[in-house]
Amino acid sequence: MNRVILIGRLTKDPDVRYTSNQDATAVARYTLACDRAYKKKGEQTADFINCVSFGKNAEFAEKYLKKGMKIAIEGRWQTGNYKNRDGNTVYTNDCVVERQEFAENKNQNAEQSRRQEPKPDVNDFVSVPDGIDEELPFE
Prior knowledge:
The chain is α+β, with helices and mostly antiparallel strands. It contains 2 helices and 6 strands.
């Protein structure tokens, strides 16, 4: 049996491309940062899992998934290999996504995004001089 269930956050927006054949199938690739259940001193606390989805799942990823979102996916583990331009064999490991869904609500995701965005510096604001109220285009 080959079943994988992962919950994690996207490390960046999905990279979506379309095949060049007549049907032009969408292919989305993204990386999930999945926290480990345990922490050892000096060790990485998350695993970064490469994920790939096809067709409708890829179109969903393109439309709705963004960096930092927490999602749950279900799929299968797939290994492969190919020869690169130098003739060396490159081995691949991917989770092929068969099902994906949001793992938090929009408010939680908005809060996460706000924490990632830099806060404006107080010195970036300009004070409005007195008596300019009549010139402003709004009340």
